[in-house]
């Protein structure tokens, strides 16, 4: 079972103005071939389908715990996209005959404004929906671990490219954090492969060959030691992770790898603005008050 906590893994800075171009770029980290929808669903189905769980318990626990973290990464990417397009991008009118959403027309990807009410969607930066074709679950442990290592290296490449495409602080905060946490997963699968086969995959790292310290928004998370921490994301389970996640870190500032009980401290989830021209969420101020009275809920009004 999954237990949900109403917090983001990190705090995201709120942009001063909407930045649809940054939001479109970050969509690649959501629904692209190497996006968080892919990492989540690959590991989730591999954990569901894992055979000989008792005999291969540490490997199963590794994939299962990383699955839980990936749920939070999908949520983090979605909130980054939402913050990048939060607020009105229109002409300020709520009269439909004034064409309030006309400023959206020049944008390359309009799906966030049509299919969604200015919000994240499970698609890539070109508007192509994410597909289950991106899931690889062969049932062969070493093959799946090799695929996961490759998937995380590809994901790292895309995060680096998105970072270089935008100076949006929200997008860069996301990329910096995911570079570090994705780096943890690269090392985790490399060490799992070494345990399973004797081959030291960590000698290949980092891939691409550019250290996280070169990215300001990643360096600060490495300085906090987050490149060495693997979270269990569970109250009482997955206690054999240290059979794999052990020894000195092969990347980033030196130190010993550490399994952390529970979850990250996290931060508050942003409260997104009402956007009347998008009918999102579809309530005016008076409707909010009436609904608050019916629910017997203050709602901060």
Automatic annotation (TrEMBL):
GO terms for molecular function: metal ion binding. Keywords: Calcium, Manganese, Metal-binding. Binds 1 Ca(2+) ion per subunit. SUPFAM superfamilies: Ferritin-like (SSF47240). It holds the Pfam family Mn_catalase. Transmembrane segments: none annotated. Its cofactor is Ca(2+); Mn(2+). Gene3D superfamilies: 1.20.1260.10. Ca(2+) binds at residue 234. Mn(2+) binds at residues 36, 70, 73, 152, 185. The keyword Phosphoprotein does not apply. It comes from the Bacteria. Belongs to the manganese catalase family. This is Mn-containing catalase. It comes from Sinobaca qinghaiensis.
